[in-house]
Fold each of these.
Amino acid sequence: MKKTCCALILCAILAGAASTRAKAQCTSPNTAFSAGETLSYKLYFNWKFIWITVGYALMDVSNTTWNDQDAYRCHLITWGNKRADRLFVLRDTLESVVSKQLTPLYYRKGALEGDRYTVDEAWYSYPGGVSHVSQRFKNHRGEIKEAMHKSNTCIYDMMSMLLRARSFDASSYKVGEKILFPMADGGKVEEQTLIYRGKDTFKMEETGTRYNCLVFSFVEYKNGKEKEVVTFYVTDDANHLPVRLDMYLRFGSAKAFLTEAKGIRNPQTSIIK
């Protein structure tokens, strides 16, 4: 379950990171969420052809202030149950602060995975209209790596991308279209790739609720070959809620399903009656 937390966050990219090559002020209108939203997930792992519950995740958005300006704080925590802990301990806590115009301001990820604890932080600033990100990464041995990166385009972390991308419009996307975006993670900034797979319907087994969804794949490239890492099902409405994630791990496959959504801003028109 080592990549579970990353997978949940990468659902952030949802409905369209194509606009991330915008001006470096990195502002964007928010049409998808409001303070008070809470999303709950249940995590499953395929064990000898049987899907078993291995953990949970909770994500919420609240109002806060940052350097005397109004802002949003997004918080995500994932944890394994007792059964999963016997195999692999997972306790990840992520936090992101963005302005009311969705400009990235701060990011932190504290990850306990197995017996290793790491801390990843990023601070953003925009002097002269240029994106600056100051990063600090502490590995499981306590060693600290610091880095500074600047760009004329917007730089995001997994959480701030979540908050911005939820307001994007994917109606003009073509199946197979690749979406590139720069992401700060682990003390470095790297370009990542998503592929738009089209639209599909998805039925939640526990509740029977059916959703119209947009489908995206997060992929990696190794030796020139494309490898799918996560497939996301995102509601095809103004909320762009990630309702299902399929994760392809080195040692098996895992899934995450939305179990409860509170404080949703817009009508859930993606639900099929």
Amino acid sequence: MKKIRILNLEIDNWSKQELLDNLKSGVVFTPNVDHIVKLQKDSEFVKSYSIGDYKICDSQIVMYASKFLGTPIKEKISGSDLLPAFCKHHRNNEDIKIFLLGAAQGVAKKAQKQINHKIGRKIVVNSYSPPFGFEKDEAECTKIIDLINNSDATVLVIGLGAPKQEKWLYKYKDDLKFIKIFMALGATIDFEAGNVKRAPKWMSEIGLEWLFRLLCEPKRLWKRYLLDDVPFILLILKQRLSMYMNKNSKDTQQTLLADKY
């Protein structure tokens, strides 16, 4: 499968159907503008992203950037579209059993009930919403690992936001002995529970989903969309002009090689 390079990240050029047909095992990450900007300066995030087997475009803005660079991506596959499509695709596959990890207290349980009702079977076998700051609590992380390992789940959907979810997977993935498919899907659990509204389809299709989310959650998201992610435009222009360099990525790759050997 051809990969499309956007700055220091290679994105898999799948259609949603191709992904569903081929996803049998591995780690799924859904890069968007915010991920890509963070990957420019957070070496730990870059290291965490190295375990991704499927890196699929979750942003219409990134789609526009790929066209500008002359290497268009086939389709935007947002996490909020992927999870319901994945569940529907595996409606009758009893080997697919999902654990939901993430969102605020009670939200994952609500999403579990909603998904199972829509699918018509217990495709989500368990769920857990961890307390704030859990990733720094080794005992809490051990509890989560035990919950997942004892759940009979074969698929983990983790929705903790980036870079927390990717870093947690990098650290604990190998402790989850029975999980075959790992999907880091951000706010998708909130969407499935009906806890957060999705942008209207027309806004998503023209690249204004960020504006809808900003209007819905201005206190939480203003800094991300109005400050942190703005450099993406200049970075893409630099790549187009063959002026882009990222020392952080090279250093991380050397570290990964050193760890390997």
